[in-house]
Amino acid sequence: MLAKVLSFGLQGIEGYKVTVEVDISAGLPKFDIVGLGDTAIKEAKERVRSAIRNSGLKYPISAITCNLAPADKKKEGTFYDLSIAVAILCASSVIDHNKVGDTIILGELSLNGEVKKVTGLLPLLIAAKEKGYKHFIIPKENYFEASFISDIDVKVTNTLEELVNSFRDDSDVTLEVVKPSNYETLKQSKPASYLDMKNVKGQFSAKRALEIAAAGGHNILMIGPPGSGKTMLAKCFAGILPDMTFDEALEVTKIHSVAGELDLSDGIILSRPFRTPHHTATSISLVGGGSQVRPGEISLAHNGVLFLDELPEYSRHFIETMRQPLEDGQITIARAKQTVTYPASFLLIASMNPCPCGNYGSKKEECRCTPSQIHNYLSKLSGPIMDRIDLHIEVDSVSYDDLHTKEECESSQDIKKRVDKARQIQLKRFEGTKVYSNAKMDVTQTKKYCVLSDECQSILRMAFDNLHLTARAHDRILKVARTIADLDGEENILPQHIAEAIQYRSLDRKYWLND
Amino acid sequence: MNTKIPGRRGEALAFNYLVEKNYKILNTNFSCKLGEIDIIAQKDGYIIFVEVKARSSNAFGAPREAVTYSKQQHIKRTALYYLQKTNNLDKFCRFDVIEILGDKINHIQDAFM
Predict the structure, then answer these.
(1) What is the pLDDT of residues B38-63, one digit of tens each?
(2) Least packed by Cβ within 10 Å: which of A121, A229, A230, A491?
(3) Based on the domain organization, do A235 and A157 belong to the same domain?
(4) Which domain holds residue A328?
(5) Which positions in chain B touch A30 (Cβ < 8 Å)?
(6) How far apart are CA A328 and CA A198, in angstroms?
(7) Same domain (yes/no): A133, A245
(8) Non-local CB neighbours of B4 within 8 Å, separated by 6+ positions
(9) A29 closest CB neighbour out of B83, B90, B94
(10) What is the CATH number of the domain that holds A162?
(11) Does pLDDT of A375 surpass 90?
(12) Is A29 within 8 Å of B90 when comparing Cβ atoms?
């Protein structure tokens, strides 16, 4: 007897249909799984056999061949277990094959017949929905992950036995149907807590720059002596980020689901990711890769923030591999077995000291480094990387008076209100596209939305010539100017906006072009 | 020490046990150069290859533990040869182990595959 059951496979965060075919025939008993499965799939036969037996069902003693079609694609993961078990039971006439029909079945089996959670469910469901599949059976543990996709019929099961009984005519077991959850209400019920900006005394220009970065999604580099508050500013940054839209949250959740980092009690990522990898991390763990290509830190920071503290301490190799994702918003990881593209559209915050001792350029302390030491330190950052960072700011040490001021600083909440307002303007501007912020505008969009008056033109021309700006820097200045104008609520970019944007690009000339 | 005598005694016990349980015995001690199968029986449309293991005590482990992986491979190869020879390749098959500890008989159906 032959039976076919539908399942879905993952390649990166894209899903493709997999047909699980099972043939049961006479001959010496065996159980072979073909179709380029990895070790987890080869081991599925032990789980499937035990699970069927321990569910009180009859496991056919015969020659069983299971094929995962398309047979030329490498398959990995444990989510085929349940569909293999159901296909075997269909082929041995325990389940009526017609009742399964085009239901897509996903789940890992444990030896006692329990159905366990799977990773990467959300991208699978989204891909299957796009291909026109409507009916799904998934593990109960993944309930909430499935509840955010509309217009599909998803049922959950706890055990194989429950699933088999639901297909039987003589049993009144029915599977629980997933009810849709609402992203906005869930988000409001679980407010995140962050370090508040009002705890950072002084540093008004840095705060202003961070506000611009948050509003437009621009990359930012903070240079300053040790102890000036760079790290603290970055930590507070999470609290002023604009809220994620539902579409953004789905994109983020897809990646976190594939990486197995999703909290299944929520089923979706509620706040923008804020990743702070340590500088000893390997470049594979940062950009993604491995024998089974996994998303790295820069992909996990998609639509969120990647904070690199002490940027020159990271390996030069890693810093340079970030070039492509910083420009394209995605990373393509090519391996002999497969090529995978993960989104990596993150906001980069980097902090660094200007020299090994940290005091070069400081107004208070004297720098003890030799010129060549300073040069070596700064040259860890190449020109192309500096070019991709829109906002360069100096964070100088705070004075005693600033620290003990009675004056209340602005709270994160107040800053976030302005940021949210500016982001709303952008979302409206880019409605219907995959762009969510000014920083991600492409060339045509930049041309369309960053129109300069004659006065602005002349300011920018002067800066372009005097600061030896590149074409990329020119475009990025326009985008920052656009964000500053959005923060002001202005429809057109005014001279003060472009001037402020240029000012944030002048720092690399101070430190990097001196020698 | 001769191990054949308790072995043969065990096989006789297993034979009687299977006959009692309405198994139809097709062959005993079927051997070829690939290996040997103690009993080949038939029931419910299955051809059953039975390996009999007899021990007088558990001192060296249970008898069923003595059916090692390589022993299983031998039985499987012999079984395939038997099916080919008797033109039975389209039949459903099963491998059983009957362990005999003293006089106690334990029949393990579908012991391996």
Answers:
(1) 999 999 999 999 999 988 888 888 88
(2) A491
(3) no
(4) 189-512
(5) 113
(6) 35
(7) no
(8) none
(9) B94
(10) 3.30.230.10
(11) no
(12) no
Interface test with A, best of B92, B95, B110, B112 (most A CBs within 10 A): B92
Task: Write down the ipTM of this complex.
Answer: 0.84
Residue A482 token pair: 């656009």
State the nearest Cα–Cα gap between A143 and chain B, in angstroms: 37
CA B46 to each of CA A30, A99, B73, B92, B107: distance values in angstroms, whole numbers, following the listed order: 15, 30, 20, 5, 16
Tokens found for residue A200: 């950072």
Residues A135, A15: Cα–Cα separation, whole Å: 16
pLDDT in tens, A196-240: 988 888 888 999 999 999 999 999 999 988 888 898 999 999 999
Per-residue pLDDT at A179: 92
Per-residue DSSP letter, A77: S
In three-state secondary structure terms, A109 is strand
CA distances to A27, A473, B88, B91 from B84, in Å: 11, 77, 6, 11
Name the phi and psi angles at A343, rounded to 5.
-65, 145
Q: Looking at the structure, tell me whether residues A240 and A321 fall in a common domain.
A: yes
Instruction: Return the residue of B nearest to A30 by Cα.
Output: B113
CATH code assigned at A275 = 3.40.50.300
Q: So what's the pLDDT on residue A184?
A: 87
Contact B65, B40 (CB under 8 A): no
A220 forms beta bridges with A349, A391
| Residue A182 belongs to some domain of the structure | no
Residues A113 and A198 in one domain: no
What is the pTM for the complete model shown? 0.87
Please give the domain boundaries of chain B with CATH numbers for all domains: 4-108 (3.40.1350.10)
Q: For A191-198, what is the mean pLDDT?
A: 86
What is the average pLDDT score of chain A?
90
Q: How big is the CA angle at B67 (ends B63 and B68), to the nearest 5 degrees?
A: 130
Evaluate if residue B66 carries a pLDDT over 80: yes
Whether the predicted pLDDT of B34 surpasses 50: yes
> What are A425-459's pLDDT values in tens digits?
999 999 988 888 999 999 999 999 999 999 999 99
Token pair, residue A365, equals: 């302390």
The structure tokens listed for A168 are 């039987």
Instruction: Work out the angle at residue B57's Cα, subtended by the Cα atoms of residues B54 and B60, and round it to the nearest 5 degrees.
Output: 90
What is d(CA A264, CA A375) in angstroms, rounded to the nearest whole number?
A: 48
Please list the helix, strand and coil fractions of chain A in percent, rounded to the nearest 5, in that order. Answer: 40, 20, 40
Helices (H), A383-470: 383-387, 400-403, 412-429, 443-449, 454-466
Question: What is the phi/psi pair of residue A219, to 5°?
Answer: -75, 150
- What are the CA-CA distances from residue A364 to residues A218, A354, A371, A399, A474 (Å)? 30, 14, 19, 10, 34
Q: Do residues A449 and A441 touch, judged by C-beta distance below 8 A? A: yes
Residue B113 clears pLDDT 60, i.e. is over it: yes
